[in-house]
Amino acid sequence: MALLALAAAGCGAPGAAVSPTPQSSPESPGLTSPTPVSGSPQPASTLEGSIGPPGGPGAATQLMAKARCEEAGSRTGVADLSWLPAASSGSEERVALTIFPEGFDTGNFQVSPPLAARATSYTWPKTNPGGVHRWRVLTKHGATWTPSEISMFNGATCVADMA
Questions:
Q1: Beta bridge partners of 159
Q2: pTM score of the predicted model
C-alpha cells in the first residue's frame, strides 16, 4: 500500500514537475495544451546544420514542464513541455532532451520530430521515472539551430493496475 501512495504522489500530483505549471496569457497564448505530433524522438545526429550559442532573440523563452502519467494503457510517464517561441521566428523548431548532465555538450541527447516554426508545446513520450530530464527548444535560422536556455523536470513515477 505504501508503494502505491508513494507512486501516486509523483503521478501528476502538485510538485511532480520542477518547472511551474503553464499559465495562459495574452503574451503567451495556447501554452496550456500540448500539440500532438506524430513520430518518436530521434538521436541528435538526425539534426541537419550546426547548433549555435543559446539565448538571444532567436531563442525560445519561458520554458515550462509538467511531468505526468499517461491516462490509459501502461501509464508510462510523459512530459507536457511548453514555451514562448523566439522573437525572431525561425523556419522550424525541435525539442531536445537528455538525461545526462553534460548531454547537450557531448551530443548525447534526443530531438523531437520537426515542429512548426511558431509551435508552443510538445508532449515528450516515455520519460524516466523520477529521473532528472534536461530540455531545451531549438529554433532553426538558416543552417543554424538557436537553442533556448536549458530547463529541467523530474519524470513522473507511474503505477499501472494490472488486475
A1: none
A2: 0.76
Please state the three-class secondary structure of the chain as a single string.
CHHHHHHHHHCCCCCCCCCCCCCCECCECCCCCCCCCCCCCEEHHHCCCEECCCCCCCCCEEEEEEEEECCCCCCCEEEEEEEECCCCCCCEEEEEEECCCCHHHHCCCEECCCECCCCCEEEECCCCCCCEEEEEEEEEECCEEEECCCEEEECCCCCCCCC
Domain boundaries, the chain: 2-154
- DSSP 8-class letter at 105: H
Give the CATH H-level superfamily of domain 2-154.
Immunoglobulins (2.60.40.10)
pLDDT tens digit sequence for 27-64 = 333 333 444 455 789 999 989 999 999 999 999 999 99
Query: What would the DSSP string read from start to end of 37-71?
Result: --S--EEGGG--SEE--S-STTS-EEEEEEEEE-S
Phi/psi at 18 (nearest 5 deg)? Answer: -80, -35
